[in-house]
Amino acid sequence: MGGYLIYFAIIILVPLWAQMRVKGSFRKYSKVPASSHMRGAEVARQILDSNGLYHVGIEEVRGHLSDHYDPRSKTVRLSSDNFHGHSVAAAAIAAHEVGHAIQDQQDYAFLRFRHTLVPVANIGSNFSWILIMIGFFAGISGFVLLGILFMAAAVVFQLVTLPVEFNASSRAMDQVVSLGIIRNDEERETRKVLNAAALTYVAAAAVAVLELLRLVLIYTGMQRND
């Protein structure tokens, strides 16, 4: 019983802690003005143009920290705070999303692999638990195994997301430094924002792996009982 309590504490508290770190870092560094005084949208445009990505658009999107790059429409979408913000946080996040656009341009292998996994990962996320619960209640181990396989596809997607996100952050740092968007004394703050954002992906992947391992152990127990 104690082991289950520890397990559930981990899968609940780890993502919560990561989210708090992200929000805390963003809140702190969104109050620190960047020396360039550029808005996030201007940072994104300068990096895009410097890399020949004139065709990639920039749009404002609703939501808090809802920033993302859409490879289908070739658009960098920035939340209002980062689109209009002149802060170190806004510059860091805008540069990170442009990092994905550069990955797309250069046909970055992990990004392509992640795109191919999207349909399978969506199916896995939506149907894995349905199959697993049917298998548990009906005592049909085959359904449990099928659910685990679907869930494994979703876990692989999350694991592949890690190098994609870390690489985008690395590209972001290189760009804002080389283009003079941030000064040397701002590198530490910029890196903190990017690292905090990466924590959410690390936490999500860690929790997904733990859950998958737990289900595999349950399945092997069912097989032994059979």
UniProtKB/TrEMBL annotation:
Alphabetic keyword roster: Hydrolase, Membrane, Protease, Transmembrane, Transmembrane helix
Transmembrane segments: 6-22, 129-157, 198-220
Keyword Zinc attached: no
GO terms assigned for molecular function: peptidase activity
Gene Ontology BP annotations: proteolysis
Superkingdom to which the source organism belongs: Bacteria
InterPro entries: Zn_peptidase_2 (IPR007395)
Name recorded for this polypeptide: Zn-dependent protease
Native source organism of the sequence: Cytobacillus depressus
